[in-house]
Amino acid sequence: MIKERFSEKLKEILSSDDWLILQPEYEPEDNLKYESLFSLSNGYLGIRGSYEEGGKITLPYLYINGVFDKSETFMRELAALPNWLGIKLTIEKELIGIENCQILNFTRVLDMKQALLAKSYILRDKKGRETLVEGIRFVSRANVHRMGIKLYVTPLNYSGIIEVENIIDGTIINFYDAPRFKVKHTYMTANEALDKDGIYMEVATRDNHLHIGSGCRIEAYKNNRGILKNRMFHAFGEQGVEFGDFDAVEGETIEIIKYVSMYTERDAARYALHGLVKDEIDGFLETGFEEELAAHRAVYEEMWKSADIRIAGDFELDRAVRFNIFHLMSTGNERDATVNVGAKLLSGEEYGGHAFWDTEIFMLPFFAYIFPETARNLESYRYHLLEAARKNARKNGYKGAQYPWESADDGTEQCPDWTIEPDGSCYRCYVAVYEHHVSAAVAYGIYNYVKITRDKDFLLNQGMEILTETARFWASRCEYIAEKDRYEINQVTGPDEWHEPVNNNLYTNYLAKWNLRYVITLIDTLKKEHAKEYDRIIRKTGLTDGEIKYWEIVQDKMYLPRKEGTSLLEQFEGYFKLDDVVIEKYDENDWPIRPEALKTKKARQTQIIKQADVVMLLHLMGEEFSEDEISQNYEYYEKRTLHGSSLSPSIYSVMGLKVGDDSKAYRYLKRAAFLDLLNLQKNTREGIHAANTGGVWQTVVFGFAGVSIGEDGMLTVCPHMPKEWEGLDFSLHYLNSWLKITISRDNSVLVKVLDGETLEVKVNGQIIKASRE
């Protein structure tokens, strides 16, 4: 077992192997990958898995969700904030650290069950002194303003004075290892003692002058007695350092505990930050590290009761799926409706912490079925920024609400107009100009959220307003072509970003048509059944009968390209006229190899595509297409998709199961589940692929378990168990009940009610009554 690599103190703490992600040895070139994999988040903040003693290769970022800044950069991005991780141990001027000593033994693990990071290593310094250093780190989910580190330090062959430096580092900058893009998003306003002991550091963002307070205090204990001596505080520029030392005796273990807290002006008034941080740390000290850790574990125990998926007979995949769920559920915020989930969660700086269509299409279903309060917050985030979306539409010459391709804290478009290459050259980036399907994703997200949760209160109020304004946007975005008597959406980019811009991308046109049709139906229902809400929507949006009649015409005459006389849907107008290049070779990981034709032709000149586009449409709107249409289009586009985006494999897995391509669907799931763990795209260093984590959950639950909600509103389970699995079980919310679903190798299904009302579900085509646990 993995925990056998630790001493008795940590063995009794750590979970079993199915909950542990192991780093078995120290290789500096892997630092950035493991910093992402070992990130910890509690929804409020996230910190990468850097080393307390530092290192040469590191991106030691800490982010608080919602704290953005622009300064000299080309977009508002999550600001890298003062890093409180620092703990340096020194014996006679020799640093006890992984890059300063010979490593005799090394282990780090992410314990997903308890959301903590543990380490154990034996280090030998230049004078032959050997030290065992073990420890755990967590960011509390029970009290999100508390974070803690506990180290166990044992001199193995010496005695002496060990000096301790407790550090908050305010020098941290974004793009730490990219000279061309480096930027400091904060300025320091305080670097001082927390109280008579400890450190308090306060910084403010440069644009909006939002203040962030960080504080920490360190203690050393032997046999539960404080032994830290000669304490003092130093302000070294933008570093705050608390110094102390203690007497270490060969073979005896010292416990070093770091108590940390952070608050921002988003939580309290500026003048109160220092006092809040101090009081929080005082409370943490009074509670004690172990009790706070126990409260944190208790929260995660409840979260895992809801979120865990068990795959029997496929251990590595079982753990990999759990890894993706862990990072996704850790980042979702159940308390704050003004923040979203960024494309790299809170684990890395790529995409600046921005929210994309990824939230609604890939991540929202997980939260809606598992943590509905968090799902509602994600939907409320879009309502919070509705006025900004209206302004964005007006700026671009449209009506209604056009949601930005990349969204931060204020709802303005954060997708840069220019892309800068490593050599300094620039090229115009047209993504925000052409990729408008995010507005349809926002509308679909509301539809899907309400379908899953039955939250009619949200639909009748905030949801209807968003839906109305997105429909208005699409009606203004379409143009009437008189000679063809149809409406078109031209100069647009669909999910496949290798073809931009195009005319009449099927995915975009279809969802625009759907958005209009859905709102027309809802308005009619409101008028008949909810007069008060109908009046409110009409009053708030200015919607008229004439406008609705126009929408009916637009959606009725929307052009949807397809190959005449066949079931083949055309990705965009003219797609079938491109060079018909297909994928013929696969690598050792069963992944498509770029066709030889792409050495002489650009992808946009061929039918080779980046990611699921038509197939994505079939995934979202499958009930509106025949089995023949789904089957033929999956087969056609699967041979032409290179999966240049992490968003793609999970969708092809789900759809592969729908058409009976079970073997390939299983391989697509493995690709998605191990994407970051095995660094398959060579960019895990930039952070965890958030959309992929949601896609992995969808693949297991919607794909292999066959969960869906039918047109009759009934939950349906129709599994497709792969030969590699012996069993599958998971839980989800449906109506007013909490259900546990267990599936056997032979696709038989048992549904039990863990909490709530007994109800009927459809299993393998038969309606059954779920039994009580």
UniProtKB/TrEMBL annotation:
Residues 322-698 form the Glycoside hydrolase family 65 central catalytic domain. InterPro entries: 6-hairpin_glycosidase_sf, 6hp_glycosidase-like_sf, Gal_mutarotase_sf_dom, GH65_N, Glyco_hydro_65_C, Glyco_hydro_65_M, Glyco_hydro_65_N, Malt_Pase/Glycosyl_Hdrlase. Transmembrane segments: none annotated. GO terms for molecular function: carbohydrate binding; glycosyltransferase activity; hydrolase activity, hydrolyzing O-glycosyl compounds. The active site is at 497 (proton donor). Substrate binds at residues 357-358, 610-611. It holds the Pfam family Glyco_hydro_65C. Residues 24-266 form the Glycoside hydrolase family 65 N-terminal domain. Keywords: Glycosyltransferase, Transferase. Signal peptide: none annotated. Residues 712-766 form the Glycoside hydrolase family 65 C-terminal domain. One of its GO terms (biological process) is carbohydrate metabolic process. The keyword Transferase applies. The keyword RNA-binding does not apply. Belongs to the glycosyl hydrolase 65 family. This is Kojibiose phosphorylase. It comes from [Clostridium] celerecrescens 18A. The lineage of its organism: Bacteria, Bacillati, Bacillota, Clostridia, Lachnospirales.
